[in-house]
Amino acid sequence: MKLVSACLIGVNCNFRGKNWLNPALLEELKKGDLFPVCPEVLGGLPAPRAPSEIQDGDGGAVLRDKAKVVNEKGIDVTAQFMKGAQETLRIAKVVGAKEALFAEKSPSCGCGKIFNGSFSGKLVEGDGVTTALLKNNGIHVTSIKICLT
């Protein structure tokens, strides 16, 4: 069993209240190999919601209380991102997931590159909060490309 970002299989849960459907992942879901999650919704955020980015670091820094997640309105949403990451890890353990297929660049799900916290579209090396927590617990995360149109 693998976790998958729910927005990638057609659930309207991204920050725009829409999805980034990946037809190949939807087919894999139909085979019963994937378990969809949206860490941001699991953390209590609505869909749609104001875009958020990590400031002063990446998801690992957030886990160490050295960075925070702020939305474009300037509201600190770190607590919701932490709760969503913890709930996602709990689900991964329950379903026995050893891998996650997550949407790229996200402050939750991003793997390898995330937005830099300036809301300018610039990327930096790093992982989102949920990805960092899953990796810390031995779960392999793969970034899946999305189209931001």
Write up what this structure looks like:
The chain has 149 residues and is of the alpha/beta class. The strands form 3 sheets. The protein has a 4-stranded parallel sheet, with helices on both faces. A two-stranded antiparallel ribbon has the order 3-4. A two-stranded antiparallel ribbon has the order 6-7. The chain has one domain. 29% of the residues lie in helices and 21% in strands.
What is the secondary structure topology, with strand pairs?
Elements lengths: L1 E4 L17 H8 L3 E4 L1 H4 L9 E4 L3 H5 L4 E4 L6 H18 L3 E5 L9 E3 L7 E3 L3 H8 L3 E5 L5
Parallel strand pairs: 1-2, 1-5, 5-8
Antiparallel strand pairs: 3-4, 6-7
Q: What is the structure about, briefly put?
A:
The protein has 149 residues and is of the alpha/beta class.
Beta content comes to 15-25%
Class from secondary-structure proportions: alpha/beta
Assembly status = single chain
How many distinct beta strands? 8
Taking the alpha carbons of the first and last residues, their distance comes to 30 Å
Strand order of the largest sheet: 2-1-5-8
Domain module count = 1
Q: Roughly how much helix do the residues carry, as a percent range?
A: 25-40%
Q: Based on Cα principal axes, name the global outline.
A: globular
Q: What is the chain-wise order of helices and strands? A: EHEHEHEHEEEHE
Radius of gyration over C-alpha positions, nearest whole angstrom = 14 Å
